């Protein structure tokens, strides 16, 4: 299905995102350091003169629904990212949406931890907002997209992915406080290093269930601590020293999760200071510390991710490496000296294939603007 473009068509470019540091922190009210990237989902929207909506993904297939009928969760997973957003918009702007056609083409690999899902959600939200002139603010679109993931997809994600996809800027990182949504743009100058993602091409079927379990464990830790320290609204706010005093009151796993969250929040703030000073070596050291915490304390890594991070540690041309995203597969994010990128990809690919008999995929990325829409020319 292709659209014959006309003056009312909307074209959306919606980016994936990376997160340099601050993993599993957004739903704990802490600080994260993401950026939108130059790999995109492209969508073409067109109004129809009836209430039928047709969405066609070049990779996943097509489905239809009636905008005037209550929307139901689909048995086809990817459709829920779209349906959840449309449902949120219908509730925010009752009777303002009509039928539409949407065609989706993506450069973002699914399951790589670069938020193809948030790119899809935020692209749909922004596209429909502009197509039907709904007047929803960026923050409203971010919240609609996040709640689509909660209510239709079933992942109790934080706000980072949708925020970065919507608010990202070229050559900038976003230092985002996930509690207040206050943020500042930080110059993302990594030269002479490049941002390289190594996709393990594995997705262990733990991501959604264990993601939600980690969130529950963090809520459990906060609930116990708040009985004595009601001033802390979020787990990331609790100092490490206070968490240490709860080792007997919290189960071992729950205490480990809480300590990781406190340490990672502090690491992220430190990392933002280092990158502003141009200390890329120091920044990279913190990335390795984050991976250690994610692997050992938060337990969301896997053998494939650990292998790739360990492989990089003896290479002076790689200053930092860690798993990125929800975990149990997906990508490592690496800061690699520009002239060494190809050699590193070859070396890692060969070693990875030998160890796991899986082909590695590399993705070189740069920072980019967030979701952008244009009207196609008639």
Give the strand order of the largest sheet, numbering strands 1, 2, ... along the chain. Answer: 5-4-6-3-1-13
Instruction: State the order of secondary-structure elements, H for helix, E for strand.
Output: EEEEEHEHHHEEEHHHHHEEHEE
* SS content category: alpha+beta
CATH topology of one domain: Ribosomal Protein S5, domain 2
> How much of the polypeptide forms β-strand, as a percent range?
15-25%
On the 0-100 scale, what is the average pLDDT? 93
Q: Ends: how far apart? A: 19 Å
Largest sheet report: 6 strands, mixed
Given as residue ranges, the uncertain stretches (5+ residues, pLDDT < 50) are none
Tally of helical segments:
10
Shape: globular
Tell me, what is the CATH class of one domain?
Alpha Beta
The value of Rg in angstroms is 21 Å
Counted beta strands: 13
- Please give the CATH architecture of one domain: 2-Layer Sandwich
Share of residues in helices: 25-40%
Features:
alpha+beta; 4-stranded antiparallel sheet; Ribosomal Protein S5, domain 2; 13 strands
């Amino acid at each position: 299905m292709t659209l014959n473009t006309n003056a009312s068509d909307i074209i959306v470019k919606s980016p994936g995102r990376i997160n340099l540091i601050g993993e599993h922190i957004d739903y704990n009210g802490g600080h994260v350091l993401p950026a939108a990237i130059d790999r995109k989902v492209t969508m073409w929207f067109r109004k129809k003169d009836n209430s039928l909506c047709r969405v066609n993904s070049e990779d996943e297939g097509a489905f239809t629904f009636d905008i005037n009928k209550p929307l139901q969760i689909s048995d086809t997973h990817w459709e829920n990212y779209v349906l959840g957003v449309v449902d949120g918009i219908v509730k925010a702007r009752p009777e303002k949406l009509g039928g539409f056609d949407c065609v989706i083409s993506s450069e973002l690999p699914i399951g790589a931890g670069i938020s193809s899902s948030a790119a899809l959600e935020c692209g749909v939200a922004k596209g429909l907002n502009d197509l039907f002139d709904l007047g929803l603010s960026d923050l409203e679109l971010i919240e609609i997209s996040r709640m689509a993931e909660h209510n239709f997809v079933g992942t109790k994600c934080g706000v980072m992915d949708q925020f970065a996809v919507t608010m990202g800027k070229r050559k900038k990182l976003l230092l985002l406080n996930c509690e207040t949504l206050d943020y500042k743009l930080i110059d993302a100058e990594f030269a002479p290093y490049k941002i390289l993602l190594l996709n393990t091409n594995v997705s262990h079927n733990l991501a959604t269930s264990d993601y939600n379990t980690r969130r529950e464990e963090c809520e459990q830790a906060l609930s116990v601590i708040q009985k004595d320290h009601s001033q802390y609204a979020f787990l990331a706010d609790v100092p490490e020293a206070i968490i240490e005093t709860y080792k007997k009151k919290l189960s071992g796993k729950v205490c480990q999760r809480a300590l990781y969250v406190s340490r990672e929040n502090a690491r992220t703030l430190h990392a933002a200071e280092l990158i502003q000073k141009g200390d890329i070596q120091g920044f990279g050291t913190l990335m390795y510390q984050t991976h250690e915490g994610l692997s050992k304390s938060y337990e969301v890594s896997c053998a494939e991710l650990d292998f790739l991070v360990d492989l990089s540690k003896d290479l002076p041309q790689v200053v930092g490496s860690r798993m990125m995203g929800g975990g149990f597969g997906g990508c490592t994010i690496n800061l690699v000296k520009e002239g060494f990128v190809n050699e590193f990809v070859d070396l890692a690919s060969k070693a990875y294939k030998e160890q796991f008999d899986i082909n590695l995929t590399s993705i070189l990325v740069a920072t980019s603007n967030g979701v952008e829409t244009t009207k196609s020319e008639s």
